[in-house]
Design brief:
Keywords: Membrane, Transmembrane, Transmembrane helix. This protein is mostly helical. Helices cover about 75% and strands about 0% of the residues.
């Protein structure tokens, strides 16, 4: 895994903001479960089984399953780009974009009030998008960059602060962006409910466009001089 570049950090910040928005979307509007918090969803799945609540257990289990499928797709896209020596952020972000914009268009078509089965499909799709994002970021931007899985990030930061006296200010920035994304979506969902699904898709689009712009500015690899006969 390579070290993250400055452009990767900017993209990761936008993706963290969007992850907060998408998790708020799942919890508020798509069934009361999260889209990328596998630990919480696994616990909810167990709660659903223990309380004989098939709806809660089913939605949480679906979110976990779709997250895994999305992670497989995002990881495959990022590794394929890495082996091809292309811009590593572009492929998996495009896959995530497709998933988010499909759901956003569907949401707009229902006026922000999808039926029960449609809401369930939307939840699975955005959970897959979050799995795609997390796996792609891990491969493409390095293992120390994360945009939605903050438990491990916070734990590592606390350990390093205590054992090495090395504070991790970037962790506070990341957590703050996730919270801000959730706050922003909550406000949009309250006041502009019919178009709320567009909000996280726009944030990921900005990250994707920024990555493509940075790629276009990077100098190409120098070519080896031709051998003389």
């Amino acid at each position: 895994m390579r070290s993250p570049q400055r452009s990767d950090v900017r993209a990761a910040r936008l993706l963290t903001f969007s992850a907060g928005a998408v998790n708020a979307w799942g919890f508020l509007s798509l069934g009361g479960v999260f889209t990328s918090v596998v630990t919480a969803n696994s616990a909810m799945f167990g709660i659903g089984l223990g309380s004989v609540d098939p709806v809660l257990g089913g939605l949480a289990g679906l979110a976990v399953l779709c997250y895994v499928l999305g992670a497989a797709g995002g990881g495959w896209s990022a590794v394929r780009a890495e082996r091809g020596a292309r811009a590593l952020t572009t492929d998996f972000l495009f896959l995530e974009l497709v998933l988010l914009w499909v759901v956003a268009a569907w949401w707009l078509g229902t006026g922000g009030h999808p039926s029960g089965w449609a809401r369930t499909v939307m939840l699975g799709t955005v959970a897959a998008a979050m799995g795609c994002q997390n796996a792609g970021v891990r491969v493409a931007m390095g293992g120390r960059v994360t945009t939605a899985y903050l438990t491990g990030l916070l734990t590592r930061a606390v350990v390093e602060a205590v054992t090495e006296r090395r504070p991790q200010r970037q962790v506070l920035v990341t957590m703050g962006l996730l919270v801000l994304g959730a706050v922003a979506f909550t406000l949009v969902e309250r006041w502009l409910h019919a178009v709320a699904a567009v909000f996280p898709a726009l944030a990921v689009t900005a990250a994707w466009l920024g990555s493509r712009y940075e790629r276009s500015r990077r100098p190409g690899r120098p070519t080896a001089p031709a051998r003389r006969p």
